[in-house]
Design goal:
Layout: E1 8-11, H1 25-43, E2 47-54, E3 67-77, E4 81-92, E5 99-113
Antiparallel strand pairs: 1-3, 2-5, 3-4, 4-5
Length: 130
């Protein structure tokens, strides 16, 4: 078993499925968005909004009962933005083996904002970069 710790871990339910019985892609995208915000908050405790989600290509379906892990990594910290890589992997327990499979990856750009919704520096001016 891997030592990696996911930003979030989700068990998907029948309400998340499409007409074909697999999980809606939009459900996965929503969780990618949430996982990226969890990662950004580790860097600085601001409110964040999603500016962009780059190239999401699905490699494997997700089924009801699958346990889905969203692993995150901060790729870049700009003045007001944070770029986070989210890797989505599924644990399939239907056969009792707990096999893991890559579902998708995405790079998410988040912008730190103030209470009026205006961009603010991620770090205080003059703070050391990571």
């Amino acid at each position: 078993m891997s030592d990696r710790v996911p930003a979030i871990k989700v068990l998907l339910l029948p309400k998340d499925t499409n007409a074909l019985g697999t999980i809606f892609g939009g459900v996965i995208l929503a969780h990618i968005d949430l996982a990226s915000a969890v990662e950004a908050r580790k860097l600085a405790r601001h409110r964040y909004v999603t500016k962009a989600m780059h190239e999401v290509e699905f490699h494997a379906p997700v089924f009801v009962g699958d346990l889905v892990n969203f692993y995150t990594e901060t790729l870049k910290v700009g003045r007001t933005s944070v770029t986070v890589k989210v890797t989505v992997e599924v644990e399939r327990w239907s056969a009792g083996a707990g096999e893991c499979e890559l579902v998708t990856q995405a790079e998410v750009v988040l912008v730190a904002i103030d209470t009026d919704g205006r961009p603010i520096p991620v770090r205080p001016e003059g703070a050391a970069a990571r």
